[in-house]
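2024-03-11 09:14:02 DEBUG pipeline.ingest accepted 1 chain
2024-03-11 09:14:02 DEBUG pipeline.ingest length=717
2024-03-11 09:14:03 DEBUG pipeline.predict start
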Amino acid sequence: MMRRPGTMLATTLLVAGSLGLPGLAALPGIPGVPGVPATLFSLQAQQEPPPPLAPRPIEFPAFERFTLPNGIEVVILEYGTQPLASIRLYQRGGGSLAPADRAGLGDLAATLLTRGTTTRSAVEISEAIEGVGGSLSSGSGPDFLNVSATVLTHHLEVAFELLADVARNASFPEAEVELARRQTLSGLQAQLGQPQAVAGRLFRRLVYGHDHPYGVSPTPESVSAITRDDLVQFRDRALQPEGALLLVAGAVERDRVLALAERHLGDWVGEPAAAPHLDAPAAPEQTRIHLVHRPGSVQSVILAGQPAVAGDDPDFAGIEVANRILGGGADSRLFRILREEKGWTYGAFSGVTRPVGTGVFQVSTEVRTPVTDSAVVEILHQMDRVGVEPISSEEMDAARNYLAGSFPLQLETASQVAGRLATTLLLGRQVEEVSRFPERIRAVTPADVQATGIRMMRPEQSVVVVVGDATQILEGLDAIAPVTLLDLQGEELDRSEVLSPLAEIVPWDASRLEEGVRRYELRFDGNPVGSATYRLERQGDAWVATTTVSPTMGGGQETVLVFDATDFTPRSLRQNQSAAGLELEVELEVVGGRIVGQANLPAQLGGARDVDHPLNELLFPGMDEFVMAASELAEGVRFRIPYLDVVQGQAITLDVRVIGREVVEVPAGSFDAWRVEVGTAQGTLTLFLRAEGPHVLVKQLFSGQPVTLELTGISPL
């Protein structure tokens, strides 16, 4: 049983709209200003904007630095007039400290730091911080683990007490560990349905390599393998006072902060594990495109870039200006050319990461499928231009003025100032890098920008990742650079199988199906949220399949399919669905070799429409389940299933691949089953089909959702 838009048990519709206004010149006047014609307003709008004011000096707030006897560096930033205080404790110990087979350990540990200590439960921690109107959080990046709290100034001691407790005494209760693990696994499953996430994981792995800490991403296997002992050991290795940075900012008093730091953290002793060695990744020898096949995708996600510079690189001002010109904003070259001039995308951007080790330069965009190859060519061309063409004075002025002029907006609160300062100190940079930021930006020359382009934006040595429909874009990409074809899990695909014509598919034999009734339970994050009943009955020379889905929260779905009992030729489909106040009705039949009928969809999906489409060996939605049940399955078998997507109003192809065989436990019992992956435009669905024919569905995992469908019973008619 496959679920697509319009047949999901629980449907969420996100509708993006825009506000259309008539042109100003068409308005009869300015509302609220009698006697002022629109033409006058239009003429005023065309006047040249006033010249910018002369830049004023920006004085970075003063701060004090101390080191406690146990090795904690304390930075006190007395800033702001509001009675707020922000406390941040950083230590070198992020995800890069975790072994590859425990990828995700740093994030999971950070999640659990505030969920229970040896002195407080998770509820007690929440009640204590919320009781004073504050917040307490913890986080982990590639290089650092942190705990932070924000409170009103007169509750500063409560913040210090809680922060010290979670940093020193986190206990990782088993129940909280399992809850956080389930939440993490649900998030990883959701990423399979997000092409941007798929592209990002692959891009990092290709740039840094499989064994580099920055190139390793969490997987369901690595997260499932993490134990409570792993979490305790990670905390003890990563979170120790020696070398930690404690930054306190806001309307605070120096002497009080030092007294609280001594009281709650002064007797804490220990030093963290040695920081991991971070090799600088080598740039690729040549540009290669890695194409992730996402069948039916109407857009392509594109990432392109290469290793950049280390976090302590002294020339970061020049990098910021160069990046701003190329793709750092809505006035950049990439945004202007790809969106405004070409109309290929809603946005195109570039950025440079700045970790402790080597960062990454990356261009990202999402374009319409037909222009994928053109967009890749344009991106590489614009990268090349930065290093080989002189930068105009207009672009230089615009980039420098924006970066320097917007800097004061990043210093409006004590928390913002603390964040800028913390990044500088953690990377081992001189404080002047942030305190004199506008001056450093304005000193960047066109030659500096070109040097950055030559050094960091190398179109001839780039990693390019594209996530899209390979059947539509592979040929065009082949003309640009060598292409490696991958599936959504990053495994290499045989292009001959992906591109094989549908005519090569052997006919399916519907006579292999059997009458019967199957019952299922739908679970969300392990909790029951609905049930479904499937009934298949032979009526003369046709099969009649009736499906009833009943969510616990109301609404539901009923589908009646009729198709030929020998060759699967569809005859009719009737479907009614209601969810969240929305109604969907579809009635189709095959007449004279054409699919005709009516689809009454919610307005967000296009409203009512007539259906008239050539049959051309297409199936109706929902028939894919029966095709797989009647197929001859074996490990490595691959085939395609073409069907009519009623919501999109077009033919769609599912890519089916049999991965292997395994035993699956469901409420109905234990089954020897084929594990089958089905590629769709929404991601990869994982099905477990009974090994014995007909291969009825035993269990299904839904792409991009923490949802499972499990067989609870099967019986004859």
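2024-03-11 09:14:41 DEBUG pipeline.report The chain has a mean pLDDT of 87.
2024-03-11 09:14:41 DEBUG pipeline.predict end
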